[in-house]
Amino acid sequence: MSQFPPRAFIRMVAELDQEEALPEATQTVPQGELRFLSLRDVLDRLTISRSLLYELIKDPIQPFPAPVHIGRRSVWVKNEVESYMQAILETARKRSLS
Questions:
Q1: Where would I find the H helices in the chain?
Q2: Which residue pairs from 19-28 have beta carbons closer than 8 angstroms and sit at least 24 positions apart in sequence?
Q3: What averages of pLDDT result for each successive group of 10 residues across the chain (98 residues)?
């Protein structure tokens, strides 16, 4: 694997820089630090298998956030993954109290 980021990622960063010049109402980037997680990072955080992750993405009740495709690579937005984990935790705690 190359030590340099793929060209698609470099183009995406350049597009994000251009969006910063736009008014805040037109930006779709969430506030705070925007960070991507690889498949391996997501699997390590959730401690689940790859097949279960893709089943969770298709779950109709509480779907896991879909990946963002950068060229041939799939990545997940860190804030979305953490929000999903927090929602699962809150749901589990509500069930245990009932």
A1: 7-20, 39-46, 50-57, 78-97
A2: none
A3: 53 55 50 88 96 95 94 95 95 85
Q: Domain residue spans in the chain?
A: 7-97
Q: How far apart are CA 76 and CA 70, in angstroms?
A: 10
Paired tokens of 25: 């109402």
Question: What is the CATH T-level fold of the domain 7-97, as seen in this structure?
Answer: Recoverin; domain 1 (1.10.238)
Of residues 38, 44, 34, the one with CA closest to residue 73: 38
| C-alpha to C-alpha distance for 39 and 16, rounded to whole angstroms | 22
Q: Is the pTM of this model over 0.70?
A: no
Q: Give the Cα separation of 72 and 86 in Å (integer).
A: 29
* pLDDT of res. 96: 83
Residue whose entry in the numeric block shows the structure tokens 């929000």: 83
